[in-house]
Amino acid sequence: MPVHIACQEGQTEVVFEMLQRHPYLLHLSGAGKNTLLHFVAMCPEDRSELLNMLLDLGADVQTKNTEGKRAIELAEEVENDEPDHPHLAILQERMGVEKAFQSKEMGGPLRRATAEKCYTAIEKEDERVLTKLLRGGMDVNGTMDEALREDDDIGLTPLLLAIRMLRGTMVSMLASNEWGNPWGLSISQPNVHGITPMHMLAIAAEEDTQDARGILHVLLEHNPEPHLVDRKGFTALHYACEKGNLHNVIALVEKAGGDLRMETEDEMTCLHLAALNQHGEVVSYIIDALRGTRGGNFTFVSSEQAARAIVRKSDNTGNTALHYAAKNDANAEWAKQIMGCGGSPAQVNKEGFTPVEIAQKARQALMMDMLGREAARMLDEETQEKSRKMLMLSYAVKDNDIDRLRQGLIEGGIAIGDPVDEVGDTLLHTAAAEG
């Protein structure tokens, strides 16, 4: 019928005039028992003006076609393919129907059309399209597997994508609670590799930019769990130290409660990762934090013990932070800080190399000289200290003070067979001589 054709073509004025002359056409059904409202609702083009006019004139929203579908069901089918299509929202509002959220459970897969629209909107920073998707009930925790690109990981959510692309405005929109999403934002939801939003930011934000700071602020407002690890055993703080973004490192420690002592599956601490990647400012911050001059929550007996334990900690290859620092003369300043906390240039890795020898292999003259002198000094001090302890133990033997002898052996880490003097006498010799 001409009126149906006019509806499909969006000729609002023509349809209005025809209905004024023939009001019965408003409820007349055509093919498949579809009324004018059905025809307009299922139209893929935007016919919002015409749809509102039919509703204003009293079109029956409850009439069903031969498939038992009302106009709102047909509009929903269109919306499945075109997530930002307006017809469904208009009918929902007119009928007083709550918008139908697209996921039955939090974090379920988004429909292909929704996922692709969302991906493109975030990529192009299209606030209009993203707003329509969010108002249409898109689950912000839904996975976008149907729209993944070649380098994407399974389990990518809109939030993870926006963070990876450092789209600050998009992150703020996704994190907002104004859309009425019944699930709310899951700040800890990971992808298939265990990467959470905070992990993703630490990985993506290699530099301290305004967008990165804005995203960090949004995430911190949702109180993220700082100790969640991915499949490599990395926390967000590990990644921040690896990337060298000092602002992120400080925020994760002092605001989120990140632990600088946590180890990855490769037994690497934050200090290892910062040193390996030659991020001197981060190394300095970590040492200051461990010493207690910066924020942090540590339970060592003393801050010096905290720093010493970390700088002497070896990873699964036996390397300490000083081993990694030794590879480049440019690291001399913060290598001094590591040694100032007890880092040893004489400590060997699993290949049997000390930091001094690594500097020698790398032909780093400055590091060779500095580490070599420190190793000699430490050896001299250790020798003197051990001699002092042995002498004190010999006094305990001579005084027949068993308790003092036992305590000295335990605390000093000294064996009974160690020589007391240059002649080679041991504590056993001393005891025998004293009877």
Automatic annotation (TrEMBL):
PANTHER family of this UniProt entry? ANK_REP_REGION DOMAIN-CONTAINING PROTEIN, MOLTING PROTEIN MLT-4
The record's listing under Pfam families reads: Ank_2 (PF12796)
Name of protein: Uncharacterized protein
Any one GO BP annotation for this protein: protein localization to ciliary inversin compartment
Q: Which residues form a coiled coil?
A: none
Keyword annotations of the record? ANK repeat, Repeat
- Cited SUPFAM superfamilies: Ankyrin repeat
State if Repeat is listed as a keyword: yes
Gene3D superfamilies recorded: Ankyrin repeat-containing domain
- Positions annotated as ANK repeat: 232-265
Q: Which GO terms describe its cellular component?
A: cilium
Which SMART domains would you find in this protein's record?
ANK
Keyword check for Repeat: yes
